[in-house]
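haha ok so turns out i had the wrong file open the whole time. this is the CORRECT one, sorry everyone. sequence first:
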Amino acid sequence: MRSPLLNKLSLTCGRRLPVSWLVLCFTSVLVLIAVFGSSFPKSFDYVTVTPVPEIYSNYRRLKEQAAVDYFQLRTVSSGAGRQGELGLCGKERENYVPCYNVTANVLLGFKDGEEFDRHCEVSSQGKFCLVRPPKDYKIPLRWPAGRDVIWTGNVKITKDQFLSSGSITKRMMLLEENQIAFHSQDGLIFDGVKDYSRQIAEMMGLGSDSEFFQAGVRTVLDIGCGFGSFGAHLVSLKLMALCVAAYEATGSQVQIALERGLPAMIGDFISRQLPYPSLSFDMVHCAQCGIVWDKKEGMFLVEFDRLLKPGGFFVITSPISKPPGHATSLKKRSMLTPLAQFTEKICWSLIAQQDETFIWQKTADAHCYSSLKKNEVPLCKEGYDAPYYQTLMPCIIGASSKRWIPIQNKSSSPDLSSVELEVHGVSPEDFFEDLQVWKLALKNYWSLLTPLIFSDHPKRPGDEDPLPPFNMVRNVMDMNAHYGGLNAAFLEEMKSVWVMNVVPVRARNTLPLILDRGLPGVYHDWCEPFPTYP
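then structure:
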């Protein structure tokens, strides 16, 4: 069948054209185009292209990636490509935490506390099933009510365990059969959490704990945080307090802190470093955390020194009040002797002691390290930093890092200055652009989530968010936090949400920048389970 084009040419020319002639014409046209095109190489130079703002191109890439991710997630959730459906785990796995199988660790020969450490290689061949909530699980109360009242059915520790532990009953009161209330006035120790926090501030030479921020303290690592009462109070002061406690097979500090809506994760450093970079926290707090300080030649203190920023504070409290000469006092003195001896070797100074609370301050003088005896506590190699669950190191990092900036010299602004960004190798333009992208993304997220998270309150699109306790979202995990822009957007929009900023170990290492912004964050390998409770 002849094409319409050939028919038209035949009508125009009066007779049928040979195919070879048409091919010759077509080839000639292509040659002419090539000749004239090469004769005017700059003919298109005058065509100007309007640059697309980078923020929109980045946002477009995010949307395109989101579409790909959505398709993959939909495929997985629909069961495509799987040989069989995932079943529900049994009741024994309601509080299951992978990588923390104490029984298996003991059988493999781990001892001296290392059986409680994280060993993902042991549980890598575990059964795949969907962990279900406990039978009596209830949706947590809205913030901030949920910070002080939790449902007993949501945590592993039972009412009987609460009542049988004498010191713990001082820190909480059972309101009903199925609720536990935490009262800050009956808090941690002494006359309560508020008094305890004020005492620490006064020991640091401050007028009150509201001046922590002005003293350079914005981020606090709370080791063995109990039920999170101290952290909850610090959060009310606009500080970032991250609770870290060891895995517990029966009843967990981390689980209860998370149930209260507070930043927390499982962490132990019996044999490995915590998954944070060096120079990350302004204060490390340790109240009755049960650490034997003279074990492993002081490497536990070396780990705290690694985590503390220059000029940062180490606060330790043993909440026992006994008359002088009592056996407990002798035990306390024997516990603190290795502390006092070792802290001098790593350039720490004991700045205050009151009752059972001691405060050391890490040096802000870089020259102090040059006077250390190398045969006692050596300096780590220049450029050293702990990437991810490395073995505890018997060396201190010294002052060679570009991030070695005393906390007292940092600006009180929540945003990093251009000089501080330069330390992290980030341009102010890139940093600002990231925030703008995530502010726009958060606006879209919040609009989509509004019917769900404010479902118990009549809210129409465009209205202001109702005040808590209507917001059902208390925390967010950002699985690839980059600069922490989503977290910053939440803060700028004044949403009552805290974010766990996760920096994947295979991504660019931006965790130091996130922590320097005063935001919680952690390294993680997403080929492994995250160290937390269901």
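Residues 86-132 form one domain.
again sry for the mixup
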